[in-house]
Amino acid sequence: MTNNPTYAQLLKSPVLLLAFGFGSGLSPKAPGTVGSFLALVLWLFLAKLSLPFYLVFVAICAVAGVYICGVAADRLGVHDHGGIVWDEFVGLWVAMAALPVSWASIILGFGLFRLFDIFKPWPISWMDKNISGGLGIMLDDIAAGVATAVSIGLLSLLGWI
Known about the structure:
Layout: H1 7-11, H2 14-19, H3 31-46, H4 51-76, H5 86-96, H6 103-119, H7 124-130, H8 133-157
């Protein structure tokens, strides 16, 4: 397999299909943003879960993501291939945990998550550079999700949102 699979190849491999965010990671431009957008659409349904079920679901997806992303990276021969977006799915879901479904949540959560994921301020950048394998692929996006959630919480505490 080349390091740029086709959609037909994704359909033959459940691991790659998940790693590439059901095909969203195949986008030729900004696959991380496209994957995050699909994750946001799925969040609209996940947000209907009670918070405990939501958190358990996201935790299972995060643990499975270590395996999914690690196997995908090995098969493609590229660590953290740009098309692997399962980490964006989980990171965005972490960012959006406990937020109400509203335009403000959608815009702020998506926007801040993408900023943290793209610019990778410390310690996110340290994780990205120093932790390898599936755990490394997942951890920097989970940290971006936590940073987003904390930022939204602080903005809310300050009464700015």
